[in-house]
Write a structure and sequence with these properties.
- The chain has 327 residues and is an alpha/beta fold.
- The chain contains eleven helices and eleven strands.
- The chain has one domain: 3-Layer(aba) Sandwich (Aminopeptidase), CATH 3.40.630.10.
- Helix content is 38%, strand content 17%.
- The strands form two sheets. Strands 1, 2, 3, 4, 7, 8, 9, 10 and 11 form a nine-stranded mixed sheet that branches. The chain has a two-stranded antiparallel sheet with strand order 5-6.
Length: 327
């Protein structure tokens, strides 16, 4: 009877207490359970559904997508800035855009930004552009990373670096959302929601953009669907760390550090046509994770059935382990 009672008590103890008493080692591996294919699919299906209407800025469907991001970040323990999840700004070409942002608190005074644009083309000439890969996949990956940090805290592990999560609006409006976020930093209007400290450019170690990360239809090499591209200057992209994690964790993805071997296209995608360009132009270190452009992107056929869920799961896990090496 006493033995059964002891076993019951042990099963009810928090894992961090068990870790202290029985040698449980907290590892980033413990966060991997948060990355479930069915959950990834549900998020991408919602964001690319008729409910979200293709997520054109300012539409009802666009606001539904913003609410999904807010709910996902809040559930993952992310704290809003100034008590507000939305940061409004003027869209280029007219109208009002809204970035959705919050911070996962660390224990130190350094910051990184993880961002993914959630706007898309909407409905054009009566046809909806779902944007499952572009960029519901990136938004869901970002939200899942937040959940992984939350899971690590549950196990008793906190990181020194504060992580700012941003759902960007206005990519389709000449990067309006990225520009608004950069201006907020530059003007001293981004304040740590825990300490009240102004977060300046010099406090941010890295900006990470996730854009189109769900497909396996444009592999780096034939017959290798499990691949990932990291674009960014070698001085801060930490390519060796990504390669080492890929090998040591036996994730074994095919990694690329340029855009399919082309210097011109690498420069194009890193410095001209994606949101991280705004921060690079402002002298901030920024990188981009992607699975490349496919024949589905920016077309009505960019639907959830084009997402490679097992590969997307591996990509998110790899990025999380890469982050965990230096946060």
């Amino acid at each position: 009877m006493h033995r059964k009672l002891l076993l019951l008590i042990l099963t009810l103890l928090p894992l961090q207490v068990l870790g202290q008493s029985r040698g449980f080692v907290v590892s980033p591996v413990n966060a991997e359970a948060a990355v479930q294919e069915q959950k990834l699919l549900q998020g991408i299906e919602f964001l690319s559904s008729e409910v979200c209407e293709g997520r054109a800025s300012g539409t009802k469907g666009h606001f539904m997508a913003a609410e999904w991001i807010r709910f996902s970040l809040k559930r993952a323990g992310v704290v809003p800035f100034d008590g507000c999840w939305a940061d409004g700004f003027n869209l280029e070409g007219g109208g009002t855009g809204h970035n959705v942002l919050g911070m996962y608190p660390g224990t130190g005074e350094r910051y990184i930004i993880i961002m993914a644009h959630y706007d898309n083309l909407g409905i054009l000439s009566g046809r909806m552009y779902p944007g499952a890969d572009s960029n519901a996949s990136g938004v869901v990956a970002m939200a899942t990373l937040a959940e992984m940090f939350h899971r690590m805290e549950h196990y008793g592990r906190r990181y020194r670096t504060n992580v700012i999560f941003v759902g960007l609006d206005g990519k389709m409006r000449n990067f309006s959302g990225a520009k608004a976020l950069y201006r907020r930093i530059l003007n001293g209007r981004l304040k740590d929601p825990v300490t009240g400290k102004v977060i300046g450019k010099g406090d941010i170690d890295l900006v990470i953009n996730i854009d189109q990360i769900g497909s396996s239809e444009a592999p780096l090499h034939p017959r290798r669907s499990d691949y990932l591209i990291l674009l960014g200057d070698a001085s801060y992209a930490r390519r060796d760390a990504l390669s080492n994690v890929n090998l040591n964790r036996r994730i074994n993805m095919d990694l690329g550090f340029d855009y399919y071997g082309s210097a011109d296209f690498t420069r194009l995608f890193l410095t001209q046509v994606c949101d991280q360009r705004v921060f690079l132009d402002g002298g901030m270190p920024a990188v981009m994770f992607t699975s490349g452009i496919t024949m589905r992107n920016n077309k009505p056929v960019d639907t959830a059935d084009g997402i490679d869920l097992p590969v997307l799961r591996k990509r998110i896990i790899l990025i999380f382990h890469w982050l965990s090496k230096w946060l």
